[in-house]
Specification:
By secondary structure, the chain is mostly beta strands. Helix content is 13%, strand content 38%. It has one helix and nine strands, in the order H-E-E-E-E-E-E-E-E-E. The strands form two sheets. Strands 4, 5, 7, 8 and 9 form a five-stranded antiparallel sheet that branches. It is globular.
Length: 131
């Protein structure tokens, strides 16, 4: 039953991430997303393709930055060091003009990349950027 509940919670999120994903030749676009409670922040910086993950609240949960890269897949990067540790900067390599969708989640690390993510911590928003 728990697996069914997890799948039921994740499928609408994956569908929402996929909507509107198109490859464009437009200008680079930065974007920022927050978890629903504001405890996690993920920012995409188009120049240099950086994903910045910030743990805003000292609430015992890690901050996770999720990125969907059009034509490549979904990736999740954790900032497990706590709210006072600073921002994790992930230097990505994304082809210029590629669309991305950014999400910020909360989670509790369980030793796997996606296993401890609370996908219900961000059901309200995401942001779209262009590398």
């Amino acid at each position: 039953m728990r697996k069914f509940a997890r799948v039921a919670a994740v499928l609408p999120i994956v569908a929402a991430l996929s909507i509107g994903m198109t490859s464009t030749a437009g200008a680079e676009t930065d974007c920022t997303d927050y978890s629903d409670n504001g405890g996690a922040k993920a920012t995409f910086r188009a120049y240099g393709e950086h994903l910045l993950i910030d743990d805003i609240f000292a609430d015992g949960h890690s901050a996770i930055g999720g990125i969907e890269i059009y034509g490549d897949g979904h990736y999740f990067y954790w900032n497990r060091n706590g709210a006072d540790s600073g921002v994790r900067d992930v230097n990505l390599d994304i082809k210029e003009g590629t669309s991305v969708v950014i999400n910020a989640f909360l989670g509790d690390w369980d030793g796997t990349v996606t296993g401890g993510i609370d996908f219900g911590s961000n059901v309200v928003s995401n942001c779209h950027g262009v590398a």
